[in-house]
Amino acid sequence: MADYRFTHFEAEQEGEKPFDRLLKIFLELLTYTSGDVAEALDWFKELDQEYKLTNEDYSMEDFLEELKRKGYLQEGESGEAVMTPKTEHAIRSQALETIFGKLKRGGAGEHRTHHVGQGQEASADFRPWQFGDKSEHIAFTEGLKNAQIRMGPDHFSLSEHDLEVVNSDHYTQTATVLMIDISHSMILYGEDRITPAKRVAMALVELVRRRYPKDSLDILVFGNDAWPIQAEELPYLQVGPFHTNTVAGLELALDLLRKRRHANKQIFMITDGKPTCLKEGDEYYKNSFGLDRKITNRCLDLAMQCRKLRIPVTTFMIASDPYLQEFVKEFTEVNQGRAFFSSLQGLGDMIFRDFELNKSKRTRF
Description:
Blueprint: H1 18-32, H2 37-51, H3 60-69, E1 73-75, E2 81-83, H4 85-100, E3 111-117, E4 121-128, H5 140-151, E5 164-172, E6 174-181, H6 194-211, E7 216-222, E8 226-229, H7 246-258, E9 264-271, E10 277-280, E11 283-286, H8 293-308, E12 313-317, H9 322-335, E13 338-341, H10 347-356
Parallel strand pairs: 6-7, 6-9, 9-12, 12-13
Antiparallel strand pairs: 1-2, 3-5, 4-5, 7-8, 10-11
Helix pairs in contact: 1-2, 1-4, 4-6, 6-10, 7-8, 8-9
């Protein structure tokens, strides 16, 4: 049996340079400060003083200089340091590794179904050759065997009727809309819920771009109203003094999906509270106390509309209140979608498992 000797871990011994180690911390701070570089640097300096992140060989000034030299920071219009697109991409990549783990690059980026067709991965089944089949899919060994059985060893003759084609798993593409609740309750009572929600959203964006490049992913936020945002805006996302207009979010999600021609469509919704707002014309109907049936009935109507359009809604509920969970259960049952009730730590894992499954599959709550 092999012997193992355990020693104190030193990042430098494992080939991690001081800059790479400090960059991970800095990117995490940028996520918490919604892209405010000055605030992130203030926090970084406080951490450095308390935990001695830097030393004489590699100082705080060295780290800042390397951030600028490598293109992670640039000078803004007012002379202040701001993030660059390279930094935004680094934050998404770190979120992906933090939540989903390091993924191997996939194939063409489609999702496997239970059907066979012109896919990317060969199966163990064969079928007769048909006009239009690609030559690389022909199983010549099987064709030669069929010709030998048909004609015998003395009169060998290969015809198109002997040819067989290797079946492959059929892949499909998916259009996804990610809804993020930015109502005030996402930071209420001193609990930060928006940062994990942003981290999951950024990881999902990076996952789609790496493994499913042919998929579409639209992102929207909803408070009193709902509006689409770009993936590059996620690190800067902040909670507003908003109520929760879930109806507006769902209506916008459906509008976005109508423009997509993908075979499968779905909605992911990350929220921590009940719907409390509804827009009627130019006026807002608000009720922060209890579940107002006028508001919830509109939500249930949209859940049914999504069901008729075969658009499952997967709700990720960041709340433990049984009263609120009952509404999510009712919403999910009407839609025949999925619902998860989780802590903030488990949120990313469930989104990943759900996204990896076949989107055409319906799971009743």
